[in-house]
Design brief:
The chain has one domain: L-arginine/glycine Amidinotransferase, Chain A (5-stranded Propeller), CATH 3.75.10. The chain has 11 helices and 17 strands. By secondary structure, the protein is of the alpha/beta class. The protein has a 4-stranded mixed β-sheet, with helices on both faces. β2, α1 and β3 form a beta-alpha-beta unit. The chain is globular and about 50 Å long. Helix content is about 25%, strand content about 25%.
Length: about 350
Protein backbone atom coordinates (compact mmCIF):
# COMPACT_ATOMS: atom_id res chain seq x y z
CA UNK A 1 0.00 0.00 0.00
CA UNK A 2 1.20 3.50 -0.82
CA UNK A 3 1.86 5.90 2.05
CA UNK A 4 -0.21 8.49 0.14
CA UNK A 5 -4.03 8.35 0.14
CA UNK A 6 -5.98 10.57 -2.25
CA UNK A 7 -9.08 11.45 -0.22
CA UNK A 8 -12.35 10.61 -2.03
CA UNK A 9 -15.01 13.28 -2.26
CA UNK A 10 -17.55 11.54 -0.04
CA UNK A 11 -15.38 11.71 3.07
CA UNK A 12 -15.99 14.57 5.57
CA UNK A 13 -15.16 18.12 4.49
CA UNK A 14 -14.86 21.40 6.38
CA UNK A 15 -15.10 23.96 3.56
CA UNK A 16 -16.21 24.24 -0.03
CA UNK A 17 -13.91 26.61 -1.93
CA UNK A 18 -15.54 28.95 -4.47
CA UNK A 19 -14.50 32.14 -6.26
CA UNK A 20 -17.01 34.95 -6.77
CA UNK A 21 -17.39 36.30 -10.34
CA UNK A 22 -16.33 39.89 -10.88
CA UNK A 23 -15.86 42.30 -13.77
CA UNK A 24 -12.29 41.11 -14.37
CA UNK A 25 -13.33 37.49 -14.97
CA UNK A 26 -14.85 35.94 -18.08
CA UNK A 27 -18.26 36.48 -16.47
CA UNK A 28 -18.13 40.23 -17.14
CA UNK A 29 -20.54 40.07 -20.11
CA UNK A 30 -23.28 38.42 -17.99
CA UNK A 31 -22.10 39.50 -14.54
CA UNK A 32 -25.56 39.99 -12.91
CA UNK A 33 -26.65 36.49 -13.97
CA UNK A 34 -23.32 35.06 -12.79
CA UNK A 35 -23.64 36.77 -9.39
CA UNK A 36 -27.17 35.39 -9.06
CA UNK A 37 -25.87 31.91 -9.91
CA UNK A 38 -23.24 32.06 -7.18
CA UNK A 39 -25.69 33.52 -4.66
CA UNK A 40 -27.96 30.52 -5.17
CA UNK A 41 -25.10 28.03 -5.09
CA UNK A 42 -23.59 29.41 -1.87
CA UNK A 43 -27.04 29.58 -0.26
CA UNK A 44 -27.71 25.94 -1.16
CA UNK A 45 -24.41 24.87 0.40
CA UNK A 46 -24.73 26.92 3.59
CA UNK A 47 -28.41 25.94 4.00
CA UNK A 48 -27.07 22.40 4.53
CA UNK A 49 -24.76 23.64 7.31
CA UNK A 50 -21.59 23.37 5.21
CA UNK A 51 -18.93 26.08 5.41
CA UNK A 52 -17.86 28.08 2.36
CA UNK A 53 -14.44 29.64 1.76
CA UNK A 54 -15.18 32.37 -0.78
CA UNK A 55 -12.42 33.98 -2.81
CA UNK A 56 -13.42 37.51 -3.74
CA UNK A 57 -12.09 40.79 -5.09
CA UNK A 58 -13.73 42.94 -2.41
CA UNK A 59 -14.86 41.51 0.93
CA UNK A 60 -17.46 44.20 1.63
CA UNK A 61 -19.12 43.76 -1.74
CA UNK A 62 -19.04 39.99 -1.41
CA UNK A 63 -20.71 40.12 2.01
CA UNK A 64 -23.47 42.29 0.55
CA UNK A 65 -23.97 39.86 -2.33
CA UNK A 66 -24.19 36.88 0.03
CA UNK A 67 -26.43 38.51 2.62
CA UNK A 68 -29.17 35.88 2.14
CA UNK A 69 -26.80 33.01 2.97
CA UNK A 70 -25.75 31.97 6.46
CA UNK A 71 -22.99 34.49 7.13
CA UNK A 72 -21.54 32.56 10.06
CA UNK A 73 -20.65 29.77 7.62
CA UNK A 74 -18.87 31.95 5.03
CA UNK A 75 -15.22 32.98 5.22
CA UNK A 76 -14.32 35.75 2.76
CA UNK A 77 -10.80 35.65 1.34
CA UNK A 78 -9.50 38.62 -0.70
CA UNK A 79 -7.66 37.20 -3.67
CA UNK A 80 -6.70 37.88 -7.28
CA UNK A 81 -7.83 35.28 -9.83
CA UNK A 82 -8.55 35.06 -13.55
CA UNK A 83 -11.71 33.00 -13.28
CA UNK A 84 -13.90 31.02 -10.92
CA UNK A 85 -13.25 27.32 -11.65
CA UNK A 86 -11.77 26.42 -8.26
CA UNK A 87 -12.14 22.70 -8.96
CA UNK A 88 -9.24 22.94 -11.35
CA UNK A 89 -6.83 25.28 -9.58
CA UNK A 90 -7.72 24.59 -5.93
CA UNK A 91 -5.80 22.24 -3.67
CA UNK A 92 -5.99 18.49 -4.22
CA UNK A 93 -5.86 16.99 -0.74
CA UNK A 94 -4.15 13.76 0.26
CA UNK A 95 -3.05 12.05 3.45
CA UNK A 96 0.66 11.27 3.43
CA UNK A 97 1.52 8.94 6.26
CA UNK A 98 -0.67 10.44 8.96
CA UNK A 99 -0.40 14.06 7.80
CA UNK A 100 -2.80 16.02 5.60
CA UNK A 101 -1.21 17.62 2.56
CA UNK A 102 -2.71 20.35 0.38
CA UNK A 103 -1.12 19.70 -3.01
CA UNK A 104 -0.57 22.72 -5.25
CA UNK A 105 -0.34 21.47 -8.83
CA UNK A 106 0.41 23.65 -11.83
CA UNK A 107 -2.60 25.09 -13.65
CA UNK A 108 -2.32 26.37 -17.22
CA UNK A 109 -6.01 26.81 -18.13
CA UNK A 110 -6.68 23.38 -19.60
CA UNK A 111 -3.67 23.27 -21.88
CA UNK A 112 -2.94 26.97 -22.53
CA UNK A 113 -6.47 27.82 -23.75
CA UNK A 114 -6.99 30.95 -21.62
CA UNK A 115 -5.15 33.30 -19.26
CA UNK A 116 -4.31 31.59 -15.97
CA UNK A 117 -1.45 33.56 -14.42
CA UNK A 118 -3.51 34.58 -11.35
CA UNK A 119 -5.38 31.28 -10.99
CA UNK A 120 -2.07 29.46 -10.96
CA UNK A 121 -0.94 31.52 -7.94
CA UNK A 122 -4.08 31.18 -5.78
CA UNK A 123 -2.88 28.19 -3.76
CA UNK A 124 0.57 29.66 -3.28
CA UNK A 125 -0.93 32.97 -2.14
CA UNK A 126 -3.30 31.27 0.29
CA UNK A 127 -0.28 29.70 1.95
CA UNK A 128 1.83 32.87 1.90
CA UNK A 129 -1.00 34.92 3.41
CA UNK A 130 -1.42 32.51 6.31
CA UNK A 131 -4.71 30.87 5.31
CA UNK A 132 -3.27 27.36 5.63
CA UNK A 133 -2.34 25.49 8.76
CA UNK A 134 1.42 24.96 9.15
CA UNK A 135 3.09 22.12 7.26
CA UNK A 136 0.08 21.32 5.06
CA UNK A 137 1.14 23.07 1.83
CA UNK A 138 3.07 20.97 -0.65
CA UNK A 139 4.47 22.36 -3.91
CA UNK A 140 3.70 20.11 -6.89
CA UNK A 141 3.70 22.93 -9.43
CA UNK A 142 6.13 21.20 -11.77
CA UNK A 143 3.23 18.92 -12.83
CA UNK A 144 0.04 20.20 -14.49
CA UNK A 145 -3.07 18.60 -12.99
CA UNK A 146 -6.64 19.82 -12.61
CA UNK A 147 -8.95 18.59 -9.89
CA UNK A 148 -11.73 17.87 -12.38
CA UNK A 149 -9.50 15.46 -14.28
CA UNK A 150 -9.04 12.80 -11.57
CA UNK A 151 -11.41 10.72 -9.43
CA UNK A 152 -10.32 8.70 -6.39
CA UNK A 153 -11.87 5.80 -4.49
CA UNK A 154 -9.61 6.46 -1.49
CA UNK A 155 -8.08 2.98 -1.85
CA UNK A 156 -5.43 3.60 -4.49
CA UNK A 157 -7.57 3.66 -7.64
CA UNK A 158 -7.75 6.76 -9.82
CA UNK A 159 -10.13 7.21 -12.75
CA UNK A 160 -9.12 9.69 -15.46
CA UNK A 161 -9.24 10.28 -19.23
CA UNK A 162 -6.48 9.86 -21.77
CA UNK A 163 -7.61 12.90 -23.80
CA UNK A 164 -6.95 15.17 -20.84
CA UNK A 165 -3.92 13.81 -19.05
CA UNK A 166 -2.08 12.91 -22.26
CA UNK A 167 -2.66 16.35 -23.77
CA UNK A 168 0.70 17.65 -25.07
CA UNK A 169 -0.08 21.17 -23.80
CA UNK A 170 -0.20 19.99 -20.20
CA UNK A 171 2.83 17.83 -19.47
CA UNK A 172 4.67 17.65 -22.75
CA UNK A 173 2.95 14.60 -24.18
CA UNK A 174 4.05 12.07 -21.56
CA UNK A 175 2.92 8.49 -22.15
CA UNK A 176 0.25 6.68 -20.13
CA UNK A 177 2.98 4.83 -18.30
CA UNK A 178 4.83 8.03 -17.46
CA UNK A 179 1.68 9.81 -16.28
CA UNK A 180 0.67 6.76 -14.23
CA UNK A 181 4.04 6.92 -12.50
CA UNK A 182 3.47 10.60 -11.73
CA UNK A 183 0.04 9.82 -10.27
CA UNK A 184 1.57 7.07 -8.18
CA UNK A 185 4.33 9.33 -6.86
CA UNK A 186 2.11 12.33 -6.15
CA UNK A 187 -1.34 10.86 -5.38
CA UNK A 188 -0.54 7.30 -4.33
CA UNK A 189 -2.23 5.79 -7.39
CA UNK A 190 -1.69 2.05 -7.53
CA UNK A 191 -4.44 1.33 -10.06
CA UNK A 192 -5.17 3.86 -12.84
CA UNK A 193 -8.28 3.48 -15.01
CA UNK A 194 -7.87 5.31 -18.33
CA UNK A 195 -11.13 6.26 -20.04
CA UNK A 196 -10.60 6.83 -23.77
CA UNK A 197 -14.08 7.88 -24.91
CA UNK A 198 -16.91 10.22 -23.99
CA UNK A 199 -16.00 13.76 -25.08
CA UNK A 200 -18.90 16.22 -24.72
CA UNK A 201 -19.48 18.93 -27.29
CA UNK A 202 -18.50 22.38 -26.02
CA UNK A 203 -16.10 20.98 -23.41
CA UNK A 204 -12.95 23.14 -23.01
CA UNK A 205 -11.22 20.69 -20.68
CA UNK A 206 -10.30 17.87 -23.09
CA UNK A 207 -12.75 15.47 -21.43
CA UNK A 208 -12.49 16.04 -17.71
CA UNK A 209 -13.60 12.92 -15.91
CA UNK A 210 -16.05 14.90 -13.75
CA UNK A 211 -18.22 15.55 -16.81
CA UNK A 212 -18.35 11.86 -17.76
CA UNK A 213 -17.85 9.29 -15.00
CA UNK A 214 -17.48 9.49 -11.22
CA UNK A 215 -16.28 6.99 -8.67
CA UNK A 216 -18.75 6.32 -5.85
CA UNK A 217 -18.49 4.11 -2.73
CA UNK A 218 -18.59 0.32 -2.88
CA UNK A 219 -16.85 -0.06 -6.25
CA UNK A 220 -19.47 1.93 -8.13
CA UNK A 221 -19.02 4.21 -11.15
CA UNK A 222 -21.72 6.75 -11.99
CA UNK A 223 -21.58 7.78 -15.64
CA UNK A 224 -23.28 9.84 -18.33
CA UNK A 225 -25.20 7.94 -20.99
CA UNK A 226 -27.91 8.36 -23.59
CA UNK A 227 -30.31 6.06 -25.39
CA UNK A 228 -31.10 8.69 -28.02
CA UNK A 229 -29.66 7.36 -31.28
CA UNK A 230 -30.13 10.78 -32.88
CA UNK A 231 -27.95 12.59 -30.35
CA UNK A 232 -24.63 13.60 -31.89
CA UNK A 233 -22.88 12.33 -28.75
CA UNK A 234 -24.53 8.90 -28.82
CA UNK A 235 -21.68 6.89 -30.35
CA UNK A 236 -19.01 8.47 -28.14
CA UNK A 237 -21.00 7.83 -24.96
CA UNK A 238 -21.84 4.29 -26.10
CA UNK A 239 -18.12 3.55 -26.58
CA UNK A 240 -17.46 4.99 -23.12
CA UNK A 241 -20.12 2.75 -21.60
CA UNK A 242 -18.62 -0.30 -23.30
CA UNK A 243 -15.18 0.54 -21.91
CA UNK A 244 -16.58 1.04 -18.42
CA UNK A 245 -18.00 -2.50 -18.49
CA UNK A 246 -14.45 -3.78 -19.07
CA UNK A 247 -12.92 -1.91 -16.13
CA UNK A 248 -12.00 -3.95 -13.09
CA UNK A 249 -11.26 -3.02 -9.51
CA UNK A 250 -7.77 -3.49 -8.09
CA UNK A 251 -9.04 -6.86 -6.82
CA UNK A 252 -10.21 -7.87 -10.31
CA UNK A 253 -13.97 -7.43 -9.98
CA UNK A 254 -16.27 -5.50 -12.35
CA UNK A 255 -17.68 -2.17 -11.20
CA UNK A 256 -21.30 -1.52 -10.36
CA UNK A 257 -22.38 0.89 -13.10
CA UNK A 258 -25.07 3.54 -12.60
CA UNK A 259 -26.11 5.45 -15.71
CA UNK A 260 -27.21 9.07 -15.45
CA UNK A 261 -29.38 10.54 -18.20
CA UNK A 262 -27.95 13.06 -20.63
CA UNK A 263 -29.68 16.46 -20.47
CA UNK A 264 -31.50 17.57 -23.59
CA UNK A 265 -29.19 19.71 -25.76
CA UNK A 266 -28.61 23.26 -24.53
CA UNK A 267 -27.12 25.81 -26.91
CA UNK A 268 -25.27 29.08 -26.54
CA UNK A 269 -26.50 32.26 -28.24
CA UNK A 270 -24.29 31.47 -31.24
CA UNK A 271 -25.87 28.04 -31.67
CA UNK A 272 -22.98 26.06 -30.17
CA UNK A 273 -23.89 23.13 -27.95
CA UNK A 274 -22.92 23.49 -24.30
CA UNK A 275 -21.53 20.55 -22.26
CA UNK A 276 -24.50 19.90 -19.99
CA UNK A 277 -24.04 16.86 -17.75
CA UNK A 278 -25.51 15.60 -14.49
CA UNK A 279 -22.21 13.89 -13.65
CA UNK A 280 -20.86 17.26 -12.53
CA UNK A 281 -22.32 16.93 -9.03
CA UNK A 282 -20.61 17.69 -5.70
CA UNK A 283 -20.59 15.33 -2.71
CA UNK A 284 -20.20 17.01 0.68
CA UNK A 285 -21.03 15.79 4.19
CA UNK A 286 -23.95 13.54 3.30
CA UNK A 287 -25.37 15.82 0.61
CA UNK A 288 -25.27 15.55 -3.20
CA UNK A 289 -25.47 18.96 -4.86
CA UNK A 290 -26.81 18.06 -8.30
CA UNK A 291 -26.77 20.47 -11.26
CA UNK A 292 -30.16 20.92 -12.90
CA UNK A 293 -31.02 22.55 -16.22
CA UNK A 294 -34.73 23.49 -16.12
CA UNK A 295 -35.64 20.11 -17.63
CA UNK A 296 -38.05 18.80 -14.97
CA UNK A 297 -38.28 15.18 -16.11
CA UNK A 298 -34.55 14.75 -16.79
CA UNK A 299 -33.57 16.71 -13.67
CA UNK A 300 -35.79 14.55 -11.47
CA UNK A 301 -34.57 11.34 -13.11
CA UNK A 302 -30.95 12.35 -12.48
CA UNK A 303 -31.66 13.17 -8.84
CA UNK A 304 -33.42 9.84 -8.34
CA UNK A 305 -30.67 7.93 -10.13
CA UNK A 306 -27.85 9.33 -8.02
CA UNK A 307 -29.53 7.86 -4.94
CA UNK A 308 -28.70 4.38 -6.27
CA UNK A 309 -25.01 5.15 -5.69
CA UNK A 310 -25.56 7.28 -2.56
CA UNK A 311 -28.69 5.82 -0.91
CA UNK A 312 -28.19 7.58 2.43
CA UNK A 313 -27.38 11.02 1.00
CA UNK A 314 -29.71 13.97 0.62
CA UNK A 315 -29.91 15.27 -2.96
CA UNK A 316 -30.21 19.03 -3.52
CA UNK A 317 -30.76 20.38 -7.03
CA UNK A 318 -29.21 23.69 -8.11
CA UNK A 319 -30.09 25.26 -11.46
CA UNK A 320 -26.73 25.63 -13.24
CA UNK A 321 -27.71 27.02 -16.63
CA UNK A 322 -25.66 30.17 -16.06
CA UNK A 323 -22.53 28.18 -15.13
CA UNK A 324 -23.06 26.23 -18.33
CA UNK A 325 -22.74 29.40 -20.41
CA UNK A 326 -19.03 29.42 -19.51
CA UNK A 327 -18.83 25.68 -20.33
CA UNK A 328 -18.78 24.44 -16.73
CA UNK A 329 -21.20 23.31 -14.07
CA UNK A 330 -21.54 22.78 -10.32
CA UNK A 331 -18.58 20.51 -9.61
CA UNK A 332 -16.30 22.68 -11.75
CA UNK A 333 -17.11 25.73 -9.60
CA UNK A 334 -16.39 24.05 -6.26
CA UNK A 335 -13.55 22.30 -4.44
CA UNK A 336 -13.98 20.43 -1.17
CA UNK A 337 -11.40 21.04 1.57
CA UNK A 338 -11.26 18.61 4.52
CA UNK A 339 -10.78 19.53 8.17
CA UNK A 340 -7.22 20.42 9.07
CA UNK A 341 -6.18 22.42 5.99
CA UNK A 342 -7.51 25.98 6.09
CA UNK A 343 -6.98 28.43 8.95
CA UNK A 344 -9.90 30.85 8.65
Amino acid sequence: MSEIRFIPEWEPVEYILLALPNKDTDWEYILPEAIDQYQRLVKAITDEGIKVALLCQNVGEAMEIMQDSRQELISYIPMDYNDTWTRDYGYITVIRGERLRALDFGFNAWGLKFAADKDNLVNLNLDKKGFLLPLTYRNERDFILEGGSVESDGKGTILTTSKCLLSPNRNGGKTKSEISQELQKRLGAEHVLWLDYGALEGDDTDSHIDTLARIAPDDTIVFTGTKNFDDSQFEELLAMRAQLTLFRTAEGYPYNLVELPLPDPIYDTDGSRLPATYANYLVANGVIFMPTYAQPDKDELAMRTIRIAFPTHKVVGVDCRTLLRQHGSLHCATMQIPHGILKL
